[in-house]
Amino acid sequence: MAQAPDLKLVPTPGQTIGPFYGYALPYADGHKLVDRAHPGSIRLHGTVYDGKGAVVPDSMLEIWQADEHGNIAQKDGSLVRDGFTFTGWGRVAVDNVGHYTFQTVNPGATDEGKAPFIMLVVFARGLLNRLFTRIYLPEDTAALENDPLLKSLSEEQRKTLIATREENGDLRFDIHLQGENETVFLAYPRNGE
Amino acid sequence: MSAQETSTDKSFENSHALDPAATADSQQQIDQEIADLHGGYRAAVESGESKEETQPRINFAPYRSSLLRHPTKNLHHADPETIELWSPAFGERDVHALESDLTIQHNGEPIGERIVVQGRVLDGDGRPVAGQLIEIWQANAAGRYIHKRDQHPAPIDPNFTGVGRAITGPNGEYKFTTIKPAPYPWKNHHNAWRPAHIHFSLFGTDFTQRMITQMYFPGDPLFSLDPIYQSITDQKARDRLVATYDHSVTSHEWNTGYNWDIVLTGSNRTWMEDGEDEH
């Protein structure tokens, strides 16, 4: 792990999103990075589970990803979607049974030979700080083999970060906050945690 | 239609469900658990076994909902890659300038103490986070949220929804005009009340800086009783969530004023000499 220089300022502590964000943060088409008619449009979906395997119906998820060519969008319009601009960002509240759906595209590799992934952040009542993780695409096995993060994980842990491709091309990615299949959550150098 | 009916969202029907066994615990029991955890923390810091904590514990048993919802393994350290070194962009298209005033969203004046909360958003190196989205949400002056599952029998204010947005200025500055929220009961344990707070959602220049937190008001008598606030075991770190009353932000016959600066984590990106990014 790279040693990063010390921060000059101490980061402000995080706190839970709480149960009552539902009238504030979700917005129209927040789950829709692209329209369904967009070529290559896929559904990214899954369920959030707690340590007893119960669903977590009051969690909120955000994704951030490159487009299908691996380009990182730097365009506004993430909150007020115009239906044309790909901004790479999505936000969704899970439903009553802890299930979420994003309408998006498979991200391309941002660099030659890199395994493409979607970045995911999890918020929930009972979760005192947000959790970061990555959703890897399952196809490019050579790139997955060489991925620095995946290489540093056990086989069991690695599985928790690689999405399943369904027959119709959709991606399935479940999130386990704890328990046997606990998802690997990430911290970054310089995050002060 | 009332504001509550218009804002109802069916997907939140179960969002207030809590472990019924937990709600019977007394405040005394919760206080003792907090005291034990804090005592253990201070002893470990004083003996040099642990370093000071600056973030909440994600496993904090006095906050009962954390028990089954915290990862049990240490967070895995990752070197951020390309996509993680950028954040989504927001702009005037996304946020109207008037959205930072929560007191003008309806036809009449909301009830309560009008306040201004202002400050700066900085990264861990002290650089301002400019042009980035801040969102806030909060209860009204009676301690009630506009949320279907908030069934606390306190009045809804038809002139107050409690949602605001802003884009930070060139020096990372932000300013919200709102109503001071009240404490409200929740079901973590018997007679549990949350200190008054405003929720803040923030983005930095990297997506690794994304965070959600809560701002509290100085001198709140509920601080010591609240397991969410106390999940930050270090007093200095807890103090970072408390705004400062500032009489220069208070204005004549109009509002009281608070300052609250927010520090995101360090940016992982390699910056240009002048602190500007390339795009």
TrEMBL record, chain A:
Family of the protein in this entry: Belongs to the intradiol ring-cleavage dioxygenase family.
Enzyme Commission number: 1.13.11.3
Organism: Neomicrococcus aestuarii
NCBIfam families listed in its UniProt record: protocat_alph
UniProt entry keywords in alphabetical sequence: Dioxygenase, Oxidoreductase
Protein name: Protocatechuate 3,4-dioxygenase alpha subunit
GO MF annotation list: ferric iron binding; protocatechuate 3,4-dioxygenase activity
Cross-referenced Pfam families: Dioxygenase_C
The Intradiol ring-cleavage dioxygenases domain, residue ranges: 36-178
Cross-referenced PANTHER family: DIOXYGENASE, PUTATIVE (AFU_ORTHOLOGUE AFUA_2G02910)-RELATED (PTHR33711), PROTOCATECHUATE 3,4-DIOXYGENASE ALPHA CHAIN (PTHR33711:SF9)
Key word Acyltransferase present: no
InterPro entries, A to Z: Intradiol_dOase_C, Intradiol_dOase_core, Intradiol_RC_Dioxygenase, Protocat_dOase_a
From TrEMBL, chain B:
Stated family: Belongs to the intradiol ring-cleavage dioxygenase family.
Protein name, entry field: Protocatechuate 3,4-dioxygenase beta subunit
Residue stretches making up the Intradiol ring-cleavage dioxygenases domain: 117-145
GO biological process, alphabetically ordered: 3,4-dihydroxybenzoate catabolic process
Coiled-coil ranges per UniProt: none
Domain of life (superkingdom): Bacteria
PROSITE patterns assigned: INTRADIOL_DIOXYGENAS
Keywords: Dioxygenase, Oxidoreductase
Gene Ontology molecular function: any one: ferric iron binding
The enzyme's E.C. designation: 1.13.11.3
Presence of keyword Metal-binding: no
Source species: Neomicrococcus aestuarii
